[in-house]
Amino acid sequence: MRRFKSRLALSAGIAAIFATPGHAQEAQVDADTGGITDIVVTAQRRAEKAQATPLAITAIGGSDLQSKGVFETADLSAVVPNLQIISPYGRAQPNISLRGISVANEYNANQASPIGVYIDDAYMASRTSHGMQLYDLERVEVLRGPQGTLYGRNTTGGAVNFITMRPKLEGTSGFVEVGYGKFNRIEASGALDATVVPDKIGIRIAGNYIKSDPMVKNLVPGGQDLQSEDSLGVRVSLLAKPSEDFTLFAKFYHGKDKPWQVGNHFIGATPTGVSPLTGYGRGSLGFYEVQANNPGKFEFDGTGGLLNLTYNTGDWTLSSITSYDSGGRKLKHDADNAPMDILQIYWNDAFKQFNQEVRVNYDADGVKAILGGYYGWDQVDVYNQFQFLFFLKGIVPFALPFPAATSGFGVDSRYRQTRESKAIFGQVEYELTDKLTASLGLRYTWDSLKYSRGNANITDYSLTPVFNTIPAPGPYNPAVFLDRSDDFKALSGRIGLDYKASDDVLLYASYSRGYRAGAINGGGYLSPTQIDFVAPEKVDAYEVGLKSDLLDRRLRLNLAGFYYDYKNQQLQEVIGAVALLRSAPKAKILGFEAEMTALLSDNFKINSTLGILGTKYEGLTLSGINLNGNRLPFAPKLTWSGGADWTVADTKAGKIVLNGNFSYASQQWFSPFNEKPSYIGDAITNVRQQQEGYWLVNGQLRLEGEKFYGSLWAKNIFNQGYHVYGLDLRAAFAYDYLALGSPRTFGATIGVKF
């Protein structure tokens, strides 16, 4: 589940987590302790209870995701403090922001996320694979803070690990589920778990299908509505245990997604929102209404596999994880959503990746140790076509030199990016006393990056190439290319102390260093000077935390406080019509988090999360504008969520459970400019590049029977209109781009377990 569908992300994601439902709702009460259940996680590359792990980690079981209102990848923002998941493409290529660390407003396919995304412990290098096909999950683990030792590659902000369901090696079981909802949303999912040899070999086949009508109304006469769902995925897993010591887990998946493009708002660069370039403004359009004359399809597909081998000799465990993934995306994107051709983009990329990790674990005599090596390789071939101001075709003649603000033109841009990463790592935990444990982890990484086969050219109105811009200005020549490369290396790691005050209270403190490899600008196409490298990101993080189970384990309270010294954040600066990759010299991040779960009775559980975040840039200047003191993008000062599960009745047909949950995110900026102008001489501030604080409220009524189950559900009950991403395009096209979140949806789901 990995690269998969390129950016299917959310669309598939919806399928994903929505599809894991019905099977066994996680017990609210632990059968042994009578308290809140604890999830076993592998955040430290070994199985241990989440409450015993001295890290800030949010672990959510697959079936509990639905009860918390998590129906798609983006919904994780509502249950994890200081987490934002957004995208310029709707349910695709999500940009993950954790504790203020993110790719900012970067949208190019070649950039790595500073939040490492893993599926079944395999690293997903391409952001186009993040959030795809997450159905039939066992759990999701969100590790907050730098993971510079055990995860390492590009994890300055943290890591998200999606763990899929494995075969049970016992009998035959499974589920089939169908659902229908608003926008003619049809969902079908299921899984079959078959034991070939009891306790030895088992196979699990899972799949999901989701299709819905568009959610954004297009008021252009006869125009196609936008923001639909159309995804299909299948996964086959094999688990073999030929002996008590040896385990083999293999997985194959394929998926595809073909939604209509995301809806976005065109806000003209005048106080009234009218474009001075075209005279167009949204006028009285509703929030989920647009006027797009040329919308297109987003198409994604992905295929991959994984092999995990584990050999256990008692104190020692040897593990090997091998994965390969490939996929692609084709996006026809009416990026203005206006009734004329201002900006039309065709994104085309194909990617593939290989990962190999080998680890040796030791656990005995008060010592827990890990030693491992990692190799990763990924490649993306990019071909993008931009059509600028084509509404001027036939009005203003095409002419060189270029670009000319008074005339429309096209750009064809292509390149290949190849990344290679090698690392050795180790971690030791030693029990100083029965209660006090010290840990030390180090990782050394070698990264190489190559940009090759780079070529870009200007086209006329007929899309005929006429002039090369890369590798050098001159007459069109498709046989010339630009090649560039660079290498990076870094030492990262973690030092920590944890104190077990009692069986139910854990205190910890740590210092950690996170690292994200240097990168090359993948958005340049008008000059070879735009194809430049930026330095690696680094973050020095200091954290203290508390994990506790109180009141006979009926109240769980986890707290964390942290301070980050953040260097060289890789972010995007848009100059005219070109996106340029930059490095922010320094930033400071200070924050606090709280997670609470309470069993008020065996039939009533409540939960809540709180995130408080302060961020500011230091020494940052973009486009000649001093941005010192500005907040980081996608970093709201406050995030708050809560929910409740109430078993209102226990009938012969099953338990009837009422669930409600809410989430709140305070005001956040989409741009590092915050309210400042985007360039010298700009008379208009950047105030539209933000989302004011907003609430989302979801609810469900579920029947949880022994064999049959069902639910009535609703998301965004109050139909809150909100933006999930913004991009300032005023300098070149006289408008702001603002991508839309999802409107109110509701539906019903029924299923059967066997």
Textual characterization of the structure:
- By secondary structure, the chain is mainly β.
- It has a single domain, classed as Maltoporin, Chain A (Beta Barrel), CATH 2.40.170.20.
- It is built from 3 helices and 44 strands.
- The strands form 9 sheets. It has a 22-stranded antiparallel beta barrel.
- Strand 18 (298-312) and strand 19 (316-334) form a beta hairpin.
Give me a quick take on this structure.
This protein has 754 residues and is an all-beta fold.
Write the layout of secondary structure elements.
Blueprint: H1 9-19, E1 40-41, E2 48-49, E3 57-61, H2 62-67, E4 83-86, E5 95-98, E6 115-119, E7 122-123, E8 137-144, E9 158-164, E10 172-181, E11 185-197, E12 201-212, E13 217-218, E14 229-240, E15 246-257, E16 264-268, E17 289-290, E18 298-312, E19 316-334, E20 343-364, E21 367-388, E22 409-431, E23 436-459, E24 465-470, E25 474-475, E26 482-502, E27 505-516, E28 519-520, E29 533-534, E30 537-550, E31 555-575, E32 578-601, E33 604-618, E34 621-622, E35 625-626, E36 638-650, E37 655-665, E38 668-669, E39 690-691, E40 694-704, E41 708-715, E42 723-729, H3 730-733, E43 735-740, E44 745-753
Name some characteristics of this structure.
754 residues, mainly beta, Maltoporin, Chain A, 22-stranded antiparallel β-barrel, 3 helices, 44 strands, disordered N terminus
CATH hierarchy: architecture: Beta Barrel
How would a crystallographer describe the biggest sheet? 22 strands, antiparallel, barrel
What is the first-to-last residue Cα distance?
Answer: 25 Å
Please identify the oligomeric state: single chain
- The average pLDDT is 90
Number of helices: 3
List how many beta strands DSSP finds: 44
Structural class given helices, strands, pairing? Answer: mainly beta
Find the CATH superfamily: TonB-dependent receptor, beta-barrel domain
Helix proportion? under 10%
Flag low-confidence runs: 1-27
